[in-house]
Design brief:
Elements (H helix, E strand, L loop, with lengths): L2 H13 L4 E6 L2 E6 L23 E2 L6 E2 L8 H4 L3 E4 L4 E4 L15 E2 L4 E7 L2 E6 L4 E6 L6 E2 L4 E7 L1
Antiparallel strand pairs: 1-2, 3-4, 5-12, 6-8, 6-11, 7-10, 8-9, 10-12
């Protein structure tokens, strides 16, 4: 089973809301178990960048509190940005090897299928590719940082 097949399998499991899955093909065995929320309410969903809102901020020290101005609103809320999320749990790496330049940096133009980063999971290096073309606006995780399934990695301004 190659990385593309594994990614498609994971996307299918998410789409169908399947929490646990096991597949055995010859000498290859794959088991996927998605984490669940502690609360039993089905109305709870993981927090995404689109569900974060700005709270009212004080206008000036000593002044009355006022509504947030557009300068305090994150860029992701001011314009529609595509969020590239981690398809797996692992460790985020910005470059192919230590000392190498990063695959992409803010301001770079990317094409669909272009490698953005690597996520190491169980000693396997998984290349994470752009699923849209556009401009990298922001990298949301640090090099060497552990990442969770579905965690936002990059903001891309689509073309």
């Amino acid at each position: 089973m190659n990385q593309k097949e594994l990614k498609e399998l994971i996307e299918f499991l998410i789409e169908k809301d399947i929490a646990e899955f096991e597949l055995e093909r010859g000498d290859v065995k794959v088991r996927v178990k998605r984490g669940t929320l502690v609360a039993s309410s089905p109305a709870l969903h993981p927090i995404t960048p689109h569900s974060i809102t700005a709270a009212p901020m004080p206008s000036a020290p000593g002044g009355p509190p006022g509504p947030a101005v557009s300068g305090n609103v994150p860029a992701a809320e001011q314009e529609e940005l595509h969020v590239v999320k981690s398809p797996i749990v692992g460790t985020f790496y910005e470059s192919p090897s230590p000392g190498s330049p990063p695959f992409v940096k803010p301001g770079d133009a990317v094409e669909p299928g272009q490698v953005l980063c690597i996520i190491e999971a169980m000693k396997l290096m998984n290349e994470i590719e752009a699923d849209v073309g556009g401009e990298i606006v922001k990298r949301l995780v640090n090099n060497g940082q552990p990442v969770e399934y579905g965690q936002p990695l990059f903001n891309i301004r689509p073309r």
